[in-house]
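Lest this sound abstract, we think one record worth quoting, the chain in one-letter code, the fold tokenised, each line plainly labelled:

>
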Amino acid sequence: MKIQLRDYQQKSVDEIRYAMQCGHRSVLFVLPTGGGKTVIFSYITESAAIKGNRVLILVHRQELVEQTSRTLADIGVDHGIIANGWKQDLSHGVQIASVATLARRMHRLDPAFFQLVVIDEAHHAVAGTWEAILAHFDNAMRLGVTATPERLDGHGLGNMFSIMIEGPQALELQEAGHIVPAKYFGHPKYFGHPGREDEVLPTKGDEFDLDALEEEALTRRALDSPVKQYKAKLNGQTAVAFCLTVAHAEMLADSFCVAGIPSVVLDGKLSKTVRRQRLQALAEGKIKVITSCMVISEGFDLPSVGGCLLVRPTMSLALHLQQIGRCLRPAPGKSHATIVDMVGNTMRHGFHLDERDWSLEDKERKETLSVKECPDCYAILPITTTVCKEWDHDKKRECGHVFGKGPRELKPLEEAGDVIVVELDQTQIRLKRRSEELEADTLEALQELGRQRGYKPGWAYYRHKARQIKRSSNSTTHQADPWPRP
């Protein structure tokens, strides 16, 4: 079956190819969860394989191995799999490899064996094991794909990729119907939430110390609270709960079961057969909640899931967006996804629809001001909201809370002596920012805009470079594949 690309997917493929034709041997492609990254790199893989080139697809979880294999099989691309539990067959020109397995076997492969390396979830590419594999196959062209090109420590991916190509952002995907809207609810009394003034979370390096938080997470109150919130906000729907540790995931699953809500744990120690069975049970509604510690933060594709429970605080914007993205895919009868954020990650990082200024450069972490939490119903709302109109599940009516301060305003504009105050919601603010970037049609204009926004100089350079690639690819009616025949 030939892949039918959406318009923006075809445009992205053209831009990636043109970037490589322009001499970029390492391209990073960015697209939010739900946009079809697997489809795009599978299409490019098929094209390269037809030319007789060998392609390596690097993934880091069992679910990603199987997901990618299904996609390639659907379009008729023969491939082998290098992973535990699979018989290795290098006669196929396309190989899907588990990073952990390939790291142990790569010494058996010639460094020139592959002509193209595709890195799924490429924000991991700087980790030691990934870096060692990429260094081994350094002569191959490199395509990284990710929804979140950002590391927790703030360092960019510029040392691994020479250019970044961006697809549409999440708001555009939602407006086109490719992902569903989301409703957010918090709980400021729960552990890990920034609204709990009595608590300072312990840290370890650039992240919260999850082991230190485990003790409170395993108290009866902390285990019962997500169950109550599930009943109030998601009752009867399927959901994924993202937990601190495996022990936390196991005990939370037990709490759901005791409350009469079928629940199981998904962890890395389970066989691929058991993991597949549990995910299938969730898809069929036999299981209502799956609890997990990092296993399905990425590469989890189950559109029927109605929402997620965030019970693990994180400083990582990438992890926050990846977890929310697990429940945004559309499905029949699904009007929206429900995000129950017990630990304030949305207060730290903002909504998934917020416009992100991704960059290959290092950047400083900034506090977000895009959201606030209703003190009555705990709905998480845009900072501009004056009246909460979310449904209060406890009172069985629209909340109606009136916030003490009005929406944020732009600085007054003076026109013929009159002061004009313009109020904008978050969508209008994003559109205004996008309009400013479009008007900055030269490198110098982008540099000035970057200075006004407080960005580092590299932002303007990468934006300008990516824009040149887009313009060139749009003006070219035929794009030859950049991978030569061996």
